[in-house]
């Protein structure tokens, strides 16, 4: 039985068609990725703008409360515990 071979020209056009299709798919994927990147960038910019507004509003509310004050004096046991507790857990002194 004689095997029928595909001509060189037919193979060339087949490989070219596969390559063009692959490049088209990569281009579509790149455009989709760029669109998602653009949407994500817009979301980050919106969050940054809103963040500044929220921070200003929170500062305004905290100013209305005034300085924090203790309701009761600290007993010796609590004072000893706080001296042993790391600063990062209790925050800075007022």
Please provide a brief summary of the model.
Helices cover 76% and strands 0% of the residues. With 94 residues, it is mostly helical.
Helical percent range? over 70%
Q: Proportion of β residues?
A: under 5%
Query: Could you give the count of β-strands?
Result: 0
Low-confidence stretches: none
Shape: elongated
Report the sheet with the most strands, covering strand number, pairing sense and barrel closure.
none
Q: How many separate helices?
A: 3
What Rg, in angstroms, do the CA atoms define? 34 Å
Going by helix content, strand content and strand pairing, the class is mainly alpha
Secondary structure elements and pairings:
Layout: H1 8-65, H2 76-84, H3 87-90
